[in-house]
Amino acid sequence: MDTSFIKSAKEHQVQYRNFLKKANKNKVLDILPDLHEEAFTHVDCLTCANCCKNYSPRFKMPDIKRIARHLRMKEVAFIDTYLKLDTEGDYVVKSSPCPFLGSDNYCSIYEERPRDCARFPYTDEDVLLKQPDLTLKNTTVCPAMYYVMERLIKL
Question: Residue 64's domain spans which residues?
Answer without folding.
Answer: 53-117
